[in-house]
Amino acid sequence: xxxxxxxxxxxxxxxYPLNTNEFIQPTLKALMKLAKGKDILEFGIGxxxxxxxxxxKGYQLSGIDYSKEMLAVLNRKKGSIxxxxxxxxxxxxxxxxxxxxxxxxxxxxxxxxxxxxxxxCFYNASRHLKSGGRFVVETFIPKVxxxxxxxVATYALEEGYIGFDKYNLINQNMTSYQYxxxxxxxxxxxxxxxxxxxxxxxxxxxxxxxxxxxHQWQDWEGNDLEPGSDDCIMVFEKYK
Length: 240
Hints:
By secondary structure, this protein is of the alpha/beta class.
């Protein structure tokens, strides 16, 4: 699992504009619509980009994250907001509470680097959900044409910055590389490792963990998943 401890302090700035209302509001609206009650758990809560706004709207938020430093940033940001956070592995950590909604977004499931870990994440979500509760997973969809051709896909190329992904087609692991050069000539590099996952795999994992698939979206506005979609949002409901 990739560690975020080293980048926690700069994380919110690094993912801008994903912290702006333009990106956050559609996610919030969709999650609030999907939640059948007020008790919500986020796997990979990070710095609270989504959890803090949800808590401000009256939801009872809990969150699990593997990075102590990301949680430290969150706890500073949330101030007096009532929110329970736990340091731990989202595949194993068990809270003594049941929830109406569990969500794992922004490619969080891809930081689990084996199929077994990803499947165990589904089982752990099910263990935390009330009967009829929902589990929401968001992740990118790999570009088949690029990875089959040369195992490399460039996703950003502009002056002073390049980002590309290198794929291992055997174990479905992918390393994402980012390189930047500032105006004063200072260079920075960063890389993360993922296990990319297909929508069909997510659907099967959900079935094995006792869920039924109720939505497949390509965005938080609820548009249906289509061939060529860049992202997928899968919504599962725990069988009653």
